Amino acid sequence: MELFEHLTERARTHRQRIVLPEGLEPRTLTAADKIIADNLADITLIGAPADIMAMAKELKLDNIQKANIVDPADEEVIDRYAPLFYELRKSKGITMEEARLTTHNPLYLGCLMVKAGDADGQVAGAMNTTGNVLRAAFQVIKTVPGISVVSGAFLMLLPKGSKFGTNDTLIFADCAVVPEPTAPELAQIAVSAARTARDIAGIEPRVAILSFSTKGSAKSDRVDKVIEATELAHQLDPNLILDGELQADAAIVPSVANSKAPNSPLSGRANVLVFPNLEVGNIAYKLVQRLGGVQAVGPVLQGLAAPVNDLSRGCFPEDIYKTIIITCNQAIGLKGL
Ligand code: ACO
Question: What is the C-alpha to C-alpha distance for residues 204 and 318, in angstroms, rounded to an integer?
């Protein structure tokens, strides 16, 4: 079964509740309509109900009437969620009045619904910047126990029959969030990426933490960081099949691994590639995508206590539809279903 067929079936079986804070964004509304029509999730749209219904009518989206609509201007809604935001942020010095103001912001309101247990995940970013989508999630949802850093992975869907990865899939991380991770942060990114490999790609992770050095072939502070991250990742998850520091070829080409890293538990068959910083990760995924004819799905945000995913502002309804399905699957994975 193709990856998205599998993810779609899993979403349908373990129905989740997804909140879309950009309820008045036409591509979002179109994707929401199809999710409801395909019976894949319960959708909450944030926005003025009359405006959402008028847009749905104009776009001929008949299923939107089955969505739950939450009005961010409704003071009863603010009464319900602002105290939660105040509790979460009072140590940062915010007042209840400031908490109420922030709760009117749909990106925060959606995250607060998830935090309160009224939704299972959020998808936004068709009309908001990555920074704004992430900041709301960082402040409200926070990280899963044992992880303090949120990062972003891409599922790299390789051409059929590829000799790389597993089931024609590689996971790349972090390609989206943490500009210059410390060694402990890099270790957490590796463990989170392994979880993404299991929960979303359905593959047993074999994790390589990458460098320009393989097993001491070069000396540098940057190499030391990767060596330390590898040790820390082993401590975080002793059962994980993981190795570093490895060059990319020693990670994914068995013959190169055999000569450069003969004792590597990966044997040149890594399926999760962890990059030493965001510059490398972001550039690598874009080059592989463009030069290799590889489909890049993501970024899938990993490390949050409940899933929130960010869209590109240039996205199409189909991208939003797929991101909702991925978000459902992350929620299902986090609940251990
Ligand atoms: N994980 C968890 N929490 C975080 C993280 C993180 N990675 N980064 C920041 N936080 C928390 C902070 O601890 C802080 O919490 P607090 O307010 O409770 O103390 C809060 O979030 C705000 O922290 P700031 O340092 O103010 O974060 P800032 O808002 O400056 O930056 C951001 C966060 C926007 C994500 C920044 O790291 C960033 O811009 N990253 C790059 C994003 C990007 O442009 N990616 C490339 C494009 S995406 C693509 O190509 C697919």
Answer: 28
Quote the CA–CA distance of 211 and 226 in Å, as a whole number. 7
Task: List alpha helices for 26-129, DSSP H.
Answer: 26-37, 49-58, 75-89, 96-103, 106-115
- Nearest CA to 19 among 89, 106, 86? 106
Under the banding of pLDDT at 50, 70 and 90, the label for residue 1 is low
Mutate to test the pocket of ligand 1, among 91, 135, 138, 280 (most ligand atoms within 8 A of CB): 138
User: How buried is 198 (Cβ within 10 angstroms: 0-12 exposed, 13-18 middle, 19+ buried)?
Assistant: middle
User: Using a 6 Å cutoff on CB, does residue 141 contact ligand 1?
Assistant: no
What is the pTM assigned to this prediction?
A: 0.91
Q: Is the CB of 315 under 6 A from ligand 1?
A: no
Residues 266 and 246: their CA atoms lie apart, in Å, by: 10
pLDDT at res. 337: 83
* Torsion over CA: 252, 254, 260, 264 (sign): positive
Considering only CA atoms, which residue is closest to atom 41 of ligand 1? Answer: 177
177 Cα–ligand 1 center, Å: 7
Mean pLDDT of 191-202: 93
